[in-house]
């Protein structure tokens, strides 16, 4: 499971919120009871299942969250949850910023050196799952077939180690839901994944079945910093023992991993209207974030693009060269690479974190700005050379000739392309979901990881995009008519 | 540099790549003088004219206007240009402004006049070129001859000492040519210093103090209209005039 989180660190695919957003829900504090700060991860089904706002205040928040709720009540303590990435929980634990951490954490010898673990309450191993009514009965049937795995997970590592022996090919996915759908639809023959993760998916309606025993089993536990917080460790251990003895633990595990086809949400919430109703807050927030990114990103891209465009038509060689080079670089680079570079690569160079929204807006500014730059340059160049000569021969300096004569004519030429670019910017904000910006697409990913309603949710989100773009197109047509 | 000349050009060279367009031109223009430049296409006369206000940058040689060396980097070319009006073959009116705004732009932007003064001046110059009623229309609605007269009014509004005309009637329908030449002739009569590149031999004959014949990047011959048109000395001049006068 450790590799699973390595993947998260590398790709920045934090599902719910960025590291910087240290959300938690405060419990009422009573003087009599101690209060602990407990760090957990931003999502790791079925241990941590964020609600559609990325917090754990919902009805089925996951095995570990519910476990902690029960233990705290039984042992008489309060806690604040701090949500962060898995790697951040480990760092925060060592730094003393949190008293304990949890997040489907495997007990490894390496970690034992710095962490005192609680009793384990779950053994997580890799299992293979296939389509419920598919032809695959065992690993032997996989010869020549394709197997779906999630990049960086222990499932992927295990599958790779046996791929040659059983003669199958691997296909890598980023999200569980897409991967499982692929197996369910028969595009891939099977998938390997952590057992609890798979069981949770099946429980939530994926038409898959587990057909192997767990291998590479590793115990899962909570942890405190080595030698610290022994009182809390004791309480947690007592609580886990109590839950196991009273059958509460098994009941809780079964709730999230046993059975199939019965989903955590009711059937009424499975219709399009139901899904819309249940998720309207999250979808609205996602839409607002998308619009914010679009507006701020497009405004900055316009400024950057105009600078590039003006440089592109300047006298001399240097500025046109510089402009052309900048445009070449940012147009040539896929936006997702640029986003990763800014969000994940830059901090190590500049020495501090780039906030998520800033990284998103910066990505849009540079990428869309390069396109705007090319449009502006082209627009200016399309203005007849004679206009320059007439303005300059009257004695107008370069800047005044540009502003008063060339720009007004150039802008008219540019407007349709700029409007088009604006709409592309809106669509391109969805690429920022790759670094975990909670815009509309990422909101969809998070909601689907909860309810497994891939088809209906993507349909809803697709329609929202089209509606917004239609409105924008009307608006821009109106503006263009006014300008003409 | 001689103060008695409005424009003084010394040994001007201009090349585009390997193609030498001007091969060492020297020419002086006195105040109030009207100089017409004639010659075959590609002989360098337009390029020469455009060197006079630095729309083209010469490779070698000097151009002095009102005593300022315009090749000198220290010379503020924008200030020099304010005193040199230029009229183009293709008018180059600003389509994003009305006729009056075209004329008002430079005086207002360069703080020569307030908006009200500039408007009054624009109407005055439009009156001179016979287009006062067109002040508030968009220039794209005008005929070619009207456009060119607006362009002349626009240049005049900066109250220049020198006017440069680059084939001002070449893009006009024949029936429009007369109106434009009439305005130019009136200007000459009032004593404007003018350098005109033209194919209108009749105009050159009537209005020019001096006619300069360009051929292959050099000045082949110059003199009064009588000298050039009636008694050309150079075979190239004769052959050119034969072609253009006997159509």
TrEMBL record, chain B:
Entry keywords, A to Z: ATP-binding, Nucleotide-binding, Transport
SMART domains reported in the protein's UniProt record: AAA
GO molecular function: ABC-type amino acid transporter activity; ATP binding; ATP hydrolysis activity
Domain ABC transporter: 7-241
Record carries keyword Transcription: no
Pfam families on file: ABC_tran
Name of the protein this chain belongs to: Glutamine ABC transporter ATP-binding component
């Amino acid at each position: 499971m450790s590799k699973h989180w390595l993947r998260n660190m590398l790709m920045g695919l934090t599902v719910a919120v960025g590291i910087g957003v240290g959300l938690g829900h405060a419990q009422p504090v009573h003087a009599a009871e101690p209060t602990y700060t407990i760090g957990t991860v931003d999502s790791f089904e079925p241990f941590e299942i964020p609600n559609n706002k990325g917090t754990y205040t919902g009805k089925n928040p996951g095995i570990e969250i519910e476990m902690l709720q029960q233990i705290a009540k039984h042992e008489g303590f309060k806690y604040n949850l701090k949500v962060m990435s898995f790697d951040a929980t480990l760092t925060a634990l060592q730094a003393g910023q949190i008293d304990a951490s949890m997040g489907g954490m495997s007990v490894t010898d390496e970690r034992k050196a710095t962490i005192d673990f609680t009793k384990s309450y779950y053994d997580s191993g890799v299992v293979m799952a296939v389509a419920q009514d598919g032809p695959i009965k065992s690993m032997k049937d996989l010869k020549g077939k394709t197997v779906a795995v999630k990049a960086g997970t222990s499932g992927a590592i295990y599958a790779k180690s046996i791929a040659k022996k059983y003669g199958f090919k691997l296909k890598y996915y980023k999200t569980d839901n897409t991967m499982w759908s692929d197996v369910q639809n028969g595009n891939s023959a099977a998938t390997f994944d952590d057992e609890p993760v798979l069981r949770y998916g099946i429980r939530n309606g994926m038409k898959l079945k587990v057909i192997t025993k767990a291998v590479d089993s590793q115990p899962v536990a909570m942890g405190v910093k080595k030698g610290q917080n022994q009182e809390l460790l004791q309480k947690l251990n007592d609580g886990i023992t109590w839950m196991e003895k009273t059958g509460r633990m098994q009941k809780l595990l079964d709730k999230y991993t046993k059975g199939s086809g019965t989903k955590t949400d009711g059937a009424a919430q499975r219709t399009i209207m139901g899904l819309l109703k249940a998720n309207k807050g999250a979808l609205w927030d996602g839409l607002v974030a998308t619009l914010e990114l679009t507006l701020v990103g497009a405004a900055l891209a316009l400024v950057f693009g105009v600078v590039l465009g003006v440089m592109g038509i300047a006298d001399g060689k240097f500025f046109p060269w510089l402009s052309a080079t900048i445009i070449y670089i940012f147009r040539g680079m896929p936006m997702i690479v640029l986003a990763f570079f800014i969000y994940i690569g830059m901090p190590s160079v500049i020495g501090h974190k780039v906030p998520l929204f800033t990284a998103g807006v910066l990505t849009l500014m540079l990428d869309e700005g390069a396109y705007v730059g090319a449009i502006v340059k082209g627009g200016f160049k399309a203005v007849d050379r004679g206009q320059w000569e007439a303005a300059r021969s009257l004695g107008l300096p370069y800047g005044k000739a540009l502003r008063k004569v060339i720009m007004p004519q150039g802008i008219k030429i540019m407007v349709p392309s700029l409007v088009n670019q604006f709409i592309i910017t809106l669509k391109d904000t969805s690429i920022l979901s790759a670094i975990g910006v909670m815009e509309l697409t990422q909101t969809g990913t998070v909601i689907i990881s909860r309810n497994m309603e891939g088809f209906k949710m993507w349909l809803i989100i697709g329609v929202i995009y089209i509606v917004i773009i239609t409105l924008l197109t009307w608006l821009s047509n109106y503006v263009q008519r006014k300008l003409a | 540099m001689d103060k008695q000349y409005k424009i003084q050009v010394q040994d001007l060279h201009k090349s585009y790549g390997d193609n030498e367009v001007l091969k060492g031109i020297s020419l002086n223009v006195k105040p109030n003088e009207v100089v017409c430049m004639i010659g075959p296409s590609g002989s360098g006369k337009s390029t020469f004219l455009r060197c006079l206000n630095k729309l083209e940058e010469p490779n070698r040689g000097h151009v002095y206007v009102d005593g300022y060396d315009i090749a000198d980097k220290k010379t503020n070319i924008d200030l020099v240009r304010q005193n040199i009006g230029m009229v183009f073959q293709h008018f180059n009116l600003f389509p994003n402004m009305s006729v009056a705004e075209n004329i008002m732009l430079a005086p207002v932007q360069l703080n020569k006049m307030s908006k009200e003064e500039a408007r009054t001046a624009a109407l005055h110059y439009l009156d001179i070129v016979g287009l006062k009623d067109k002040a508030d229309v968009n220039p794209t609605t005008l005929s070619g001859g009207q456009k060119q007269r607006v362009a002349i009014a626009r240049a005049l509004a900066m109250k220049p000492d020198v006017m440069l005309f680059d084939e001002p009637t070449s893009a006009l329908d024949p029936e429009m040519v007369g109106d434009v030449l009439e305005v130019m002739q009136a200007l000459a009569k009032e004593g404007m210093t003018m350098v005109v590149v033209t194919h209108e031999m009749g105009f050159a004959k009537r209005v020019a103090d001096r006619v300069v014949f360009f051929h292959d990047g050099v000045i082949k011959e110059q003199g009064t209209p009588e000298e050039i048109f009636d008694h050309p000395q150079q075979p190239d001049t004769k052959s050119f005039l034969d072609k253009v006068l006997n159509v």
